[in-house]
Amino acid sequence: MIDLYYWTTPNGHKITLFLEEAGLEYSIHPINIGKGDQFAPDFLKISPNNRIPAIVDNNPNDHGDAISVFESGAILQYLAEKTGRFLSDNLRLKTQTLEWLNWQMGGLGPMAGQNHHFGQYAPEKIEYAIKRYVKETARLYGVLDRRLENREFIVNDYSIADMACYPWVVPHERQQQDLNDFPNLKRWFDTIAARPATERAYALVEQVNPGQPPNNDEAKKILFGLDDPNDA
Questions:
Q1: 1-47 per-position pLDDT tens digit
Q2: 2-85+202-223 has CATH 3.30.200.20 classification
Q3: Selecting from 1.10.3370.10, 1.20.1050.10, 3.30.70.920, 1.10.3720.10, what CATH number does the domain 91-194 have?
Q4: Which among 34, 1, 21 has a CA at the least distance from the CA of 208?
Q5: Which positions carry the signal peptide feature in this UniProt record (predicted)?
Q6: Beta-carbon neighbour count of residue 213 at 10 Å?
Q7: d(CA 150, CA 139)
């Protein structure tokens, strides 16, 4: 059994995509980041950076004590190695998959996240910041579009690289991106969207967090660190 500490964000969706694809038994523990659940002492024991997602594997492959893992990229790699799925044993394919996983973690996710922040959440509309992150998101979409030319998925078969990137493209309209400008990426996106496991993963939103993402002043204070209990 995998205990999944989750909220309905792109990083959270990465893990439900994997778990649904792999058919692993898991239990969701909602962490409402708009209410500050991420600062609870019990959660910080498994996710010291007070971010979702995190997991606890109660049946690790070494048959020892339960293992906790935080950071979505690390979780995807851990689960892939645990199950022997969605990460090739071939040295070159594995290396490419991890390259693109880290590309998402270091590029697509952070840049699209800043795009969301300055475009949707920031109390002041700073035109320079909005343009900067919209353009950088477009550049990264272009990188992925070129990679997907003549490829069904990012690295041969469907992998944790695809699972990492897809949730950050789902909010493309909010990021001011038109997928028609990126035909290879659009074809890839539509292919993944149609997978039954993807449909099951995203159906969890209505169970865990029906309605809109938190966008009130109190939630923003918590989400963006203004009410972090570690602040002076």
A1: 999 999 999 999 999 999 999 999 999 999 999 999 999 999 999 99
A2: no
A3: 1.20.1050.10
A4: 34
A5: none
A6: 16
A7: 19
